[in-house]
Amino acid sequence: MKRQILRIITLALLACTGLIASGCAVQEPTDPEPISPLTFPEVRTIQNDQLEEFAALIPAEQIVDRWGPIEATMGMSCDTDLGGRKPYFQEETGTRMLTGGIYLYLSDSADVAAILDQFASSKAGLDWGVAPADGTNAAQADLVLESPDGFSYYVNFNSNTLRGANQLSIRSYGPCVIPPKDFSPHDEY
Fold first, then answer.
1. Whole-number Å distance between alpha carbons of 86 and 23
2. Which of 113, 127, 128, 159 is the most buried (most CB within 10 A)?
3. CA-closest candidate to residue 168, choices 126, 128, 120, 111
4. pLDDT value for 11
5. pTM, full prediction
6. What average pLDDT does range 131-157 have in this prediction?
7. What does the mean pLDDT of the chain come to?
8. DSSP secondary structure string, 119-149?
9. Entry's PROSITE patterns (predicted)?
10. Taking a C-beta distance cutoff of 8 angstroms, is the pair 166, 105 a contact?
11. Helix-strand-coil percent breakdown of the chain, rounded to 5?
12. Residues 32, 30: Cα–Cα separation, whole Å
């Protein structure tokens, strides 16, 4: 009997040690994203100004059409985790981010690789994060640019879209901010 109890205790200790060593034990939560002091209107202005700056780096004769920048979107929760680890609308910080974007339709003569290089080099030395333009970054975008103040820009190129044009889309995500007092998740900002 004593031997069985020792065997059970030993197995339990080994199992716990294995869980801890494999990282399956309870992990400390990561630090939340810092909360930006910007307001919704400031975020929208900065986002759209940057999208226009990116568009201005492309020679005008290579842009045959455009849509955007997006004027207003709903404020998305910064606490949402679509990976299933917490309920969809569980609020922890109460912060929100604004999404945005622009779609540029390019001529067949546009050199997309050069355009992506131009976007990346325009932020070189400015403390921006630049993920490789090889489609292997976590977002699987052609290029990801992240500003030091929390803005992210995901650039994707699609040739011959349904519109029959080469589409360069730039999706933008603002930093997490405290929403205005009269905030509604159904309104656009």
1. 19
2. 128
3. 111
4. 39
5. 0.74
6. 82
7. 79
8. HHHHTTTTT-EEE-TTS-STT--SEEEE-TT
9. PROKAR_LIPOPROTEIN
10. yes
11. 30, 25, 50
12. 6
In the structure encoding, which two tokens stand for residue 146, read together? 């992240």
Q: Within 10 Å of residue 127's Cβ, how many Cβ atoms?
A: 9
Are 122 and 77 within 8 A, CB to CB? no
Q: Supply 182's token pair.
A: 């009269």
Half-sphere exposure of 89 (CA within 13 A, CB side): 2
Percent share of the chain, pLDDT over 90: 51
Residue that the structure tokens 């070189």 belong to: 124
Distance CA 140, CA 15 (A): 37
Residue-level pLDDT at 124: 86
Which residue type sits at 100? G
Provide DSSP, 153-174.
EEEEEESS-TTSSEEEEEEEEP
What tokens does 137 get? 């970054």
Average pLDDT over residues 158-176: 87
- Residue 138 has what pLDDT? 62
CA distance 31 to 10: 36
CA 25/CA 17 separation, integer angstroms: 9
| Choice between 17 and 92, residue whose per-residue pLDDT is larger | 92
Segment among 9-23, 41-55, 92-106 with least mean pLDDT = 9-23
- pLDDT score recorded for residue 165: 81
**DSSP designation for 19:** H
For residues 87, 88, 92, 97, the Cα torsion angle rounded to the nearest 10 degrees is: 160
